[in-house]
Specification:
Elements (H helix, E strand, L loop, with lengths): L1 E2 L9 E2 L3 E3 L4 E4 L5 E7 L3 E5 L11 E6 L5 E4 L5 E4 L6 E9 L14 E3 L1 E4 L2 E4 L6 E6 L1 H4 L19 H9 L2 E6 L16 H6 E3 L2 E2 L8 E7 L9 H19 L4 E4 L7 H8 L5 E4 L17 H19 L2
Parallel strand pairs: 14-15, 14-18, 18-19, 19-20
Antiparallel strand pairs: 1-12, 2-5, 3-4, 4-11, 5-10, 5-13, 6-9, 6-12, 7-8, 7-10, 16-17
């Protein structure tokens, strides 16, 4: 059996992946991070991908072969084996689905996705598409968390059905997510740390988030504020202004678009701050009423589709402006 290199240079890893060169492993703290592989004369691919959670939750990944719908695969100490027809070439697409059902402890790297090894026979190459990356910065809604109302475990999270993913596919961009459930702009968010300023620069505490310049950026979409309800208007305004400054430092001349929270939080603050903002665009919440999956803020599958349909022309217009 051959061993596939777990490196960014392999052109197999899309999104927020961090190389562990010492142990020849690769890890991610993000949902929606992807792996693209193309096989030739290959009958077997084996993934050594153990579950890395503290409690009973079982992490999951999503797998699609040759463009078929994604299916969910639980991570455990047992290897994952894909059996393929060696007489045909195949495209394998994998997406990180869920670490835990609620509040994954990723910031201190107690819980995360850790891929230890990919073994295969035949030929296997990285196959990330040569197209622009569209970056999404946000929380559980961008991740597609708790999207299935009848599921109360990690299967409820479906990043492949989120509006961010649907929009990226429609625009033919690679989807690059930097999003964590429960987080926000202020220290009053449901889950803190980190804040958005923390995680646009770092993947975890004291772990820098690398910038991949190999693929050009189509734009940066930010949807945050839903979890900051406990903050005062003054605190949110201060934190929003600070975030905008950091976004400009991080992404330089790339077009940045901020989408107001779907629950309508701090609309007055957004309008006041963006009144004098010349470099970052704002998409205002025009009485959106996307279907939710619970009694809180998470969107259902239909709600995610509604959000994608509503935001597609608005974002496309600003990206092309």
């Amino acid at each position: 059996m051959n061993t596939f290199p777990l490196t960014i240079k392999s052109n197999a890893f899309l999104g927020s992946w961090i190389e562990d060169s010492t142990n020849k492993q690769i890890f991610s703290t993000n949902l929606g991070a992807e792996i693209w592989l193309k096989s030739s004369h290959c009958s077997k691919i084996i993934f050594d991908w153990p579950n890395r959670t503290l409690a009973a939750d079982q992490s999951r990944i999503l797998i699609s072969i040759d463009g078929a719908d994604f299916y969910s695969q639980i991570l455990s100490e047992r290897n994952i084996q894909l059996d393929l027809d060696p007489d045909s070439d195949h495209l394998i697409r994998i997406m990180t689905q869920a670490i835990t059902f609620v509040k994954a402890q990723t910031w201190n790297l107690s819980e995360f996705f850790l891929l230890k090894k990919i073994s295969f026979n035949g030929q296997l190459t990285g196959a990330v598409p040569s197209r622009k990356n569209l970056v999404f910065i946000g929380d559980s809604i961008i991740n597609g968390q708790k999207i299935l109302s009848d599921s109360f475990d990690t299967s409820a999270h479906r990043p492949d059905k989120s509006w961010a993913y649907l929009l990226s596919e429609k625009l033919d961009f690679n989807n690059l997510r930097i999003a964590y459930g429960g987080t926000g702009i202020t220290q009053r968010a449901n889950i803190y740390p980190p804040t958005a300023i923390d995680f646009i620069w770092n993947s975890a505490l004291n772990v820098s988030r690398p910038i991949d310049y190999s693929q050009p950026l189509a734009g940066v979409i930010v949807n945050l504020g839903t979890n900051d309800r406990s903050a005062s208007s003054e605190e949110f305004s201060f934190s929003l202004k600070a975030l905008l400054r950091e976004l400009k430092k991080r992404f330089h001349e790339t077009k940045i678009i901020v989408v107001e929270p779907f629950n309508g939080c701090f609309q007055d603050v957004f309008h006041k701050v963006f009144k004098d903002e010349k470099h970052i665009s704002l998409i205002e919440n025009n009485h959106w009423n996307f279907e939710i999956s619970d009694h809180g803020v998470h969107l259902s599958v239909t709600g995610q589709q509604q959000a994608a349909k509503t935001l597609l022309p608005l974002i496309e217009e600003k990206l092309n402006a």
